[in-house]
Specification:
mainly alpha; Clathrin/coatomer_adapt-like_N; ARM-like; 4 domains; Leucine-rich Repeat Variant
Length: 550
């Protein structure tokens, strides 16, 4: 009978309470551990009904067992039992004083489980005071787990409080004791403490030096974020730290790591600010895509490329990225990267527009859609590096971008038209765009994207834009409200550009809009009609950002 019950336990199948009592009463420590783990798992995941008093009593007795594994599993099981509120609290407090580190670790973790099982009493039962005293436990795992438990227990009060005494103790006396996993936890909680003055601030930063060379990504990120928070009054120190962590970051990022790690490092890189372009561009070839790179690393590299490229080497980035724009596994990220690189300078924009001529005639609808989105990004943006900086050295360009002159008052600025009137597109690219916009699959699956392109390039295309709008207007009643509103706006903008060709279509879409069943569409139709009644100059100013040219 015992062997059958053990088989059910290992398979996580239901076991009678009488059998659990028999197994917990066994003298075999392995059986006790298996049974206690089973009770904890089933009660926390399956919503088990409350167990009998005998099970609770046996688990309470096992918390005093000389075997650390037995005591640890018993206190973990008690902490999740609804009916063992008093017994579990007594067991946790007892086990936190155990001479065995394993038992104290389990008790600290059980405190978190207990706070989730009994949220109404955990704040007032005195457990938090005991956990605060355990922050000076000689075992670093216990310290880290107590921090996590305290933060959850005191969540309604803002989480665990890190005062000067605790912060100095963790930094100056215990920092080297923590493993990588526990060190990350400690560094995150140290952000809850703010040094009182500059002297204390820089004293507390000194012990972090070893963390900036860590090859464990979470530690590097946590230590850097802690540094950024403590030095927020001195933003120039941000770039200095980025220079320090650059070798460690590249070493970790470029080796084969998990997808989760790459995502974390990429998001961290994005948060570093504009200083990354100057510091990491010196090593830009390290971030080039390799055929052997896993897909998650390629995705991360595509995102980082746009943040480190400069006009002087933009063509090399584009050349490296382009072959992957037709790769089924990463085409979307590659084409998006092209869009970012095309915003660097005039030359990079011309290079990207030239490549889009081929991508827009691809047999894949998804590649064409991504290419149209890339086209929008490239033609609608202001250059990150203006033409006036083209012949300047890299260092001087970066210096000017980092320290721009005082901006001109808004009243004295001339705002650029949102329509790229002076945009020059090659005949090949125009034909490719026309072909892409006219594809039935694109019109059906990506109507909003088509409308954005037509609206942006209304002055460049004539027949193609009218044809696309007529096709979408014929299906206006089937479009979602958002797309219908965009159709109304696009037709109005194109009408202002070419009134003779678009007049009848404007009448049709407005007439359909004002009788739409969607309040959003009706409001948009009446609003556009009111704008157009103001006259061409006012309508152009409202819809296109500029007065009509005469």
């Amino acid at each position: 009978m015992t062997s059958e019950a053990l088989k059910k336990i290992t398979r996580r199948e239901p076991v009678a309470t009488s059998q659990l009592v028999e197994l917990l009463a066994s003298n075999n420590p392995e059986v006790k551990i298996l049974t206690a783990d089973y009770v904890a798992h089933m009660h926390s995941t399956s919503g088990w009904e409350d167990l009998g008093l005998l099970v609770t009593n046996l688990l309470s007795r096992d918390c005093h067992d000389a075997n650390p594994a037995v005591a640890g599993s018993a206190v973990s099981a008690l902490a999740v039992l609804q009916t063992a509120q008093e017994e579990a609290l007594a067991a946790i407090l007892h086990c936190l004083d155990s001479p065995h580190a394993k038992v104290r670790q389990c008790a600290a973790a059980a405190s978190l489980s207990y706070s989730k099982t009994h949220p109404d009493v955990v704040v007032s039962c005195g457990l938090s005071d005991r956990l605060y005293s355990s922050l000076r436990d000689r075992d670093p795992v216990v310290v880290a787990r107590c921090l996590v438990a305290l933060d959850h227990i005191l969540a309604s009060e803002g989480g665990v409080v890190i005062n000067k005494s605790i912060a100095h103790y963790l930094l100056f006396k215990r920092l080297n004791d923590f493993s990588d996993a526990t060190l990350e936890t400690v560094l995150k909680f140290l952000r809850k403490y703010n040094p009182k003055d500059d002297k204390e601030r820089f004293e507390m930063l000194n012990p972090l030096d070893t963390c900036f060379q860590s090859d464990y990504p979470p530690v590097l990120v946590a230590a850097s974020n802690l540094f950024f928070q403590w030095t927020s009054p001195y933003p120039h120190l941000r770039a200095e730290l980025v220079k320090v962590i650059q070798p460690a970051f590249c070493k970790i990022f470029l080796k084969l790591t998990s997808a989760e790690t790459n995502i974390m490092l990429t998001n961290f890189f994005k948060s570093l600010g504009s200083c990354t372009r100057e510091i990491f561009n010196k090593h830009y070839k390290d971030f080039f895509i390799k055929p052997s790179d896993p897909n998650h690393l390629k995705k991360s590299k595509f995102e980082i490329m746009c943040l480190i490229a400069l006009p002087i080497n933009a063509s090399e980035f584009i050349e490296n990225v382009y072959p992957y724009c037709s790769d089924f596994n990463c085409y979307a990220d590659a084409i998006s990267c092209l869009g970012g690189l095309g915003q660097l300078c005039t030359r990079s924009r011309e290079n990207v527009l030239g490549l889009l001529s081929d991508l827009l005639v691809s047999s894949s609808v998804d590649i064409v859609a991504s290419s149209l989105d890339c086209l929008l990004r490239v033609v609608s943006c202001n250059m990150l590096f203006p033409e006036s900086l083209k012949n300047r050295s890299t260092s001087s360009v970066l210096s000017q971008l980092a320290n721009p002159d005082e901006p001109e008052p808004l009243a004295n600025q001339t705002f650029e038209n949102v329509w790229p009137r002076d945009l020059s597109l090659s005949i090949t690219l125009k034909n490719a765009i026309s072909q892409a916009l006219s594809r039935p699959a694109i019109l059906e699956c990506h109507p909003c994207l088509v409308l954005y392109v037509v609206s942006t390039l209304a002055t460049v295309f004539e027949d193609c834009s009218i044809t696309c709008l007529e096709a979408l207007q014929a299906e206006q009643h089937r479009l979602p409200p958002t797309a219908q509103c965009l159709l109304l706006t696009t037709v109005a903008r194109v009408f202002l550009c070419r009134p003779a060709q678009c007049y009848h279509m404007l009448v049709r879409v407005l007439r359909s809009g004002v009788v739409s069943s969607s309040e959003e569409v009706r409001d948009k139709a009446f609003l556009l009609y009111a704008m157009l009644k103001l006259g061409p100059n006012a309508a152009n100013q409202l819809l296109c950002g500029t007065a009509q040219e005469t």
